From TrEMBL:
This is Cytosolic Fe-S cluster assembly factor NAR1. The keyword Mitochondrion does not apply. PANTHER family: NITRATE, FORMATE, IRON DEHYDROGENASE (PTHR11615). Residues 366-383 have a biased composition (Basic and acidic residues). It comes from Lachancea mirantina.
Amino acid sequence: MSSILSEADLNDFISPGLACIKPVQNEQKRPENSEDALVVGKEPSEPQKVSISLQDCLACAGCITSSEEILLGRQNHKVFLEAKSNFTAGMSLAVSISPQCRLSLANFYDLSLDVFDAAFLNLMLCYFEARYVVGTQMGRTLSISETNYELSRRKTLDKYKKPQLCAVCPGFVLYSEKTKPELVPHLLDVKSPQQITGALLKANNQNIYHLAVMPCFDKKLEASRADTEGEVDCVITPREMISMLQELNLAFSDFLNGPSLQDLQQRLTPEGWNPRLHWVSNSGSSSGGFAFQYVLNEQRSNPGSEIIQIMGKNADIREYRLVDSTSGQVLASSSEVYGFRNIQNLVRKLGGARRTSRNIVITRKRASEKNASDSKPTEPEPARTDFIEVMACPGGCINGGGLLNEEANTTRRRALAKKLDTQYSTLLPQTECSEEFVSSNRYKFSAIQKSTDVVTVGNTW
């Protein structure tokens, strides 16, 4: 699976693994020896030795182009350390970390979440001299609110087509732009929590270097997009963080004894921010809860309605339906679709020649005639819902390729992801994503509807 990439050869194509859902049709030879070659090889089993591999490059475990490999090379802990050493007068460091990364690192160090959070804040303050250290919930709350606002706005348009697709997963956005341009009009143009957090941190001070700790390598490519306006300067994963600390001969345990978590949060929170709000979470999936939050928001406008949850044949497909309690009419619907195999099935259904409209009415039967559960739908239909929360990683962001899940055994790996998913819903306090958080700023990005880049056009996956 090893390949050698030359920075001068930007029109190559890296062969995906045998399990790739889109096999290569035309292979191109790659140079075996070249100066300044970049090597993409098998991911080492030890977490401290981090590299971008074909298994981990993109969430689909498929393929990246050499130009993307170069962008990834500019987003790593060595680049961060070099930039930090060259800070000019007045330059400050801001660090953001996603809840999935916090749980993964806490599990790796065998610490409770609060103890890990305090040690992480202490590390960033004392060693890296960070001015701000924040969670990403503030950015996510705005992203969810913007998503709900945009969905409501698009419903009023004549050209409205459902389902609308969540665009916070850069792996899925890249997949759509490269191979399925017909999906691009369905993508919501709302930025992800990572980018909105960066925009908030730099809103009043551009002399800030923003380091983001994120669960997958795709986030590096997202931060490198031309329309992100420098909101994130560098993205590293938990794996890379472990490598960085080892290279610096730093023991994480040395930072366990410090100020209290509350004092650290107060000290490292930006001016005007609630010190606790950006460290909490919200109801819904461990990938952000965008699908559930949409239906929950619609329920606020429909008193007397109820939310029905429908599980798919596998755990990576789920649908939420907002149903009128009296008539059984479906008022709103959304779904979660994770993993590229499920995404492929979704794309086939969306591209079907015939799409019939539905008018689902759930018949309410008396208990004496039939169990009430029999009247509820048993099969999710993501392609027919209003909105889909799409994530490239199987299991969603809690199973991101950059997290510290080194289990070689698939069963144990899934068990760890499930454990983290459970901790996500039980250990993180939850907040409401209400309309009061909607900002006057519109956090938009522009998906490429038809790429003219030679690398993208030459891609055959």
